[in-house]
Amino acid sequence: MSLVKSNRPRFTDIEGLAAMVGHGDAFGVGGHHFARLPIALLRAIARYGVKDLRYVSWAGGLPLELLLEADAVAEIDLCFSSLDIFGVPPKFRAAAESGAVPVRDWTALAMIQALRAAQQNLPSMPFQLPQGSDMLDRVPGAIARPDPVAGTDTGFVPPLRLDTFVVHAQRADESGNVQIIGPRALDFAMAGAARKVLVMVEEIVPIGALRQDGHQSILTRNQVSAIALAPGGAYPASCLPFYVTDYQALSEAFATKEAALSDKLRLPPNGLPERLRDAAKVSAETVLAMPALAYGDRKPSVDEIIAARIAAELDNESFASAGAVSPLANVAYRLAKATHAPDMIIATMSCGHLDIVPSPMILSLIESLDCETAAAHAGGDDTYSTYYQAGAVTHEIVGAAQVDRRGRVNTIALRKPSGGILRLPGQGGMADVANMHRDYLLYIPRHSVQSLVDEVEIASSARGLLTPAEREPMGYRTGKALVFTDLCVFRLDQASRELTVIETMPGVIQQQIRDATGFAVTFDAGCREVPLPSDDTLAVLRNRIDPLGLRRLEFVSAKERGALIAEILAADRAMVEHCIAAQRSPVAS
């Protein structure tokens, strides 16, 4: 049972917070992707030599890498683990592949409901079954039973209780209320499920000062155990509106192995780099007012053709959600909204930023621009109940490592020719939303017999509810189920429940597709060629929406990725410096 916390937290320092973490704790970590990660506190916990933690979070990523490096983790419960553009975290991959640390994969909804069960002192919580996938058998303690009222099969999950939850936030007032600005991920559910809530903040402000800010959420002081003032405590991750993510520092930290990751992620001796603070102040108005870039008239590449083709699926009635690490999805959504679908809704940061303006995808500024232009901010827990479970989202385009002839996806693990396991990031919330969203759109950037297979080893997600007869009783709209590759577009046929090619990429012949597919390919009678994007569409895509070419990251090999990241980071830095200069001297821009 979750314990009621005292009315006022105690104020301490980072070392004081770290001393409150016990060996063997069920240990939750807050923040989201590279936003508001409690890096300084995790480094302190590692120094204290805490062991045998049960790591619990929606995502693994950088926090988990720090704790694995310190040999502090005995068990892992998560939905997904990625270092964003830098790929699958190496320490997580090594631990999972060797079996040195048990990994339990959850669906996002199952984890949310398990945390809510703990938060609400309930013996279990129901959730929609991830129909068509294998995930129910992978979630700890989850079962399917007839609902006691309606009699329909429903998932039930026991409480997921935490001993300690750590999080970085923007501010606390002198009485101990904690302010979170922007998306709050699963922070509130995890805080409610934890006995101890340990918080780092950028500022401590007088009582009453928190009332003056917008776009905020408040953890009231009776929910918080202790607070430490730690300016720059999330570095090299972001904490808006104070500083943006230092992608250059992250790239250097991941690229070199001479020193411990914990040492490479410490604040620079002179404190936060000024450019990170200045970048956080760049407004969407400044960026949108800058002249568009010019890339010339080169022929459209396959990544541009796919982005434009996906964008064509969207219209003014679309509500499109961008998940964890999906540059291509983000580009397609923004392209549609900037051209033919200005009234569509785009939600980024896993629905944390709601109804954004399609700002350019400048790597270091994406989060701050979306945070500024969003009509509202939300947490991952309430976006499920408000949008996903309600069937309100029309599209979520997600990447897949492997898809089989029935459209089932594997993003958890692949079997190596040697017999070993290649660990993948995980499915995040795909198993849930594959059925909840009206349109189920997947993409595989490199079409091959390894990526398009007869049957996946693990069905991490699938469109199990396909026909109107299956979907309407659940309250879901029926739409398209498509798979985009660099060779063709498949449709998941409602009658055969198998993939059929409905379009081929320009210049691709049917035999190429047959040779590159691990199952017998069927072509629709009306199969046609994907149209090339217009010159106007290409100009918007290249010059306004994705000037750095982030979409390319999903279409290159692992060997090419490092050089491309270096190119993007150099261009990103130059563009951010230009934006900072324009912000300071708007007349000169």
TrEMBL record:
Spell out the protein name for this chain.
Answer: CoA-transferase
What does the UniProt keyword field contain?
Answer: Transferase
One Pfam family cited in the UniProt record for this chain: CoA_trans
What InterPro entries does the record point to? Answer: CoA_trans_fam_I, NagB/RpiA_transferase-like
Organism superkingdom? Bacteria
| SUPFAM superfamilies named among the record's database cross-references | NagB/RpiA/CoA transferase-like
- Does the UniProt entry include the keyword Transferase? yes
Q: Which Gene3D superfamilies match?
A: Glutaconate Coenzyme A-transferase
Q: Is Signal there in the keyword field?
A: no
Q: From which source organism is this entry?
A: Mesorhizobium tamadayense
What is a GO molecular function of this protein?
CoA-transferase activity
| PANTHER family given in the database record | ACETATE COA-TRANSFERASE YDIF, CHOLESTEROL RING-CLEAVING HYDROLASE IPDB SUBUNIT
